[in-house]
Amino acid sequence: MIYLDNSATTPVDPEVLKAFVKVNENFWGNPSSLHAFGARAEQLLIQAEKQVLTLLNAKNHKVIFNSGATESNNLAIRGFCHAYKKRGNHIITTPIEHASVHETIEELEQEGFRVTYIDVTATKEGILQQIQEAICEDTILISCMHVNNEMGMILPIYEIGQLLKKYPKVKFHVDAVQSIGKIPVDIDKMNIDLLSLSAHKFHGVKGCGALIMNQYLNLAPEITGGHQMYGLRSGTINVAGAVSLAKALRLVIEPLDSNYRHVKSLFDYAIQELEKIDGVVINSNREEQTPYIINFAAVPIKGETLVHALEEYDVYISAKSACSSKSAAASRILMALGIGEDIALESVRVSFSDRSTKEDVDQLIKALKVVIAQLKY
Ligand code: PLP
């Protein structure tokens, strides 16, 4: 199988799975229990939290372990805006956020919050200038993703974080799902207050995620009950999920530079080969681009048709992101990035992981040439 849909999900690393199973076999106590067996589970949880904070350099933060970034984004944005609505009602974001950010903000807009969408087709300086101009007395939150999940575009998180030092009342939420373990993420240096991540995007187990939050912030809980996770996410804690998430994070962050170099060489090679194919239009050619994602169109073939045709050759890529790929409409994200509707409908995404190989790219190109020839004529 040639699996090139790693932005949708990645295979679980055997070491991570081992850690998950080990906790479930031996340390399955409830970390909220008073007895020693529960306390052992609690110790593992505390250790996992420390590891995550150290790996992402977050000194004044705590970790809400949860089911994934969708939950993190909902809690970070709705929980923050509901807790601080007396301070102001203005949110700044981008039109290319994941649905879990986009729809949460749209819902807040219905409740009376005012939203400014930054045009991210501008230069880095242009993006910063728009943010600076949009900030006003009422601004309480900026929510901006680090790497876009369909195009691979990198947003200037470090620079936005520096700008926000001038506005301590404005808090900074970053959806870092597609950057964690791929490009450097330093929570303190980037001046991030709230950061969302999902373990299954970096060889962790599905259903395990985290919201890393500034410990001095308040959030309105989304799930009430037994007050677990600092009172922000009630429900018996998934200790195995937390321990395995910390392990998965360490396994991708330690070799980050060498993994990056490897994936960059695959990206350059794939672009060079794709450009040789008649009708292929590369969408992901921006300067600020992660090599982990290539978005392109094989004109005039519909993205969905191409995905299914490649399946016949055991090659797996995607049309749009996994969560929106079942909708027939052109991608909201590609259109916001200035790509016309026709090309947007014909676009597909190839996404690498550190385990991808040159052989995978060769097989992709070989299959693409065959199916494009079949589908065109
Ligand atoms: N944010 C981004 C940028 C994503 O790519 C995804 C998933 O694809 C999510 C959030 C949601 O993550 P999950 O489905 O693990 O909750």
Task: Describe the 3D structure.
This protein has 377 residues and is α/β, with parallel strands linked by helices. It folds into two domains: 2-8 and 256-376, Aspartate Aminotransferase, domain 1 (Alpha-Beta Complex); 14-253, 3-Layer(aba) Sandwich (Aspartate Aminotransferase, domain 2), CATH 3.40.640.10. The protein is built from twelve helices and twelve strands. The strands form three sheets. It has a seven-stranded mixed sheet with strand order 2-8-7-6-5-3-4, with helices on both faces. Strands 9-10-12 form a three-stranded antiparallel sheet. Strands 1-11 form a two-stranded parallel ribbon. Strand 3 (90-93), helix 4 (99-111) and strand 4 form a beta-alpha-beta unit. Helix 1 (14-26) runs antiparallel to helix 7 (239-253) and helix 2 runs parallel beside helix 7 (239-253). The longest helix has 20 residues, at 36-55. It is globular, with a radius of gyration of 21 Å. It starts with a strand and ends with a helix. The mean pLDDT is 96. Its cofactor is pyridoxal 5'-phosphate. Pfam families: Aminotran_5 (PF00266). Residues 2-364 form the Aminotransferase class V domain. Keywords: Aminotransferase, Iron, Iron-sulfur, Metal-binding, Pyridoxal phosphate, Transferase. InterPro entries: Aminotrans_V_dom (IPR000192), Aminotrans_V_PyrdxlP_BS (IPR020578), Cysteine_dSase (IPR016454), PyrdxlP-dep_Trfase (IPR015424), PyrdxlP-dep_Trfase_major (IPR015421), PyrdxlP-dep_Trfase_small (IPR015422).
